[in-house]
Amino acid sequence: MELIINLSEQWLELRGTRTERFAISSAANGAGEAMGSGATPRGAHVVRARFGAGLPPGAVLLGRKFSGEVFDAELGARFPERDWVLSRILWLGGLEPGQNLGADVDSFRRFIYIHGTPDSEPMGTPASHGCIRMRNDAVIRLFDQVPVGTRVTITD
Questions:
Q1: What's the mean pLDDT when you consider all of the chain?
Q2: Cα distances (Å, whole numbers) of residue 146 to 38, 102, 128, 132, 143
Q3: pTM higher than 0.85 for the full model?
Q4: In which element (H, E) is residue 132 found?
Q5: DSSP code for 42
Q6: Secondary structure letter of residue 57 according to DSSP
Q7: CA 129 – CA 17 distance, rounded (Å)
Q8: Cα gap 119→14, rounded to integer Å
């Protein structure tokens, strides 16, 4: 099993016993590996950790922990500037030293996730702060199929 993420076309593809493609939203700042860039890192990665198993769709995750809140329009209106991390997290770690692993390019230390986002956020258009955003139902479906150790390739 592997995940392929195409930044130029804004999709994520799960390749396993069957292939499934999902719309995503990657970084508004484009592709890039540097710490603090707000860009989505490219290259070979692995799912290093998973968070959110069993939580309801729209569960708000802060610091990878359930806040006890479930996202709705009222909560979104109260905190309009928050970068919402919802439902599930697949935390990525880079595999290429100097490219996305180590020093100031480390994807894991940059907290690069695949995670859910509010339905009001666009898909198919770069808009994140570096992570890969997905619809909540899609990230839950993906999460249920993807174990720690799954290979992830992110291309331009």
A1: 97
A2: 25, 25, 22, 15, 5
A3: yes
A4: strand 132-135
A5: P
A6: T
A7: 32
A8: 21
Do you know the residue count of the chain? 156
R_g of the chain, CA atoms, integer Å: 14
- Element at 75 (helix H, strand E): helix 73-78
Return the residue matching tokens 């230390």: 109
Cα distance between residue 153 and residue 6, in whole Å: 9
Least Cα distance to 127 among 24, 58, 45 occurs for 24
d(CA 92, CA 115): 11
pLDDT in tens, 76-90: 999 999 999 999 999
Amino acid at 79: F
Report the phi/psi class of residue 22: left, alpha or beta, with left for phi > 0 and alpha for psi in -120 to 50. Answer: beta
Q: How far from chain centre, in Å, is Cα 62?
A: 14
CA distance linking residue 72 with residue 59, whole number of Å? 10
**Residue indicated by tokens 């990665």:** 45
Parallel/antiparallel/unpaired status of strands 86-94 and 11-15: unpaired
pLDDT in tens, 81-123: 999 999 999 999 999 999 999 999 999 999 999 999 999 999 9
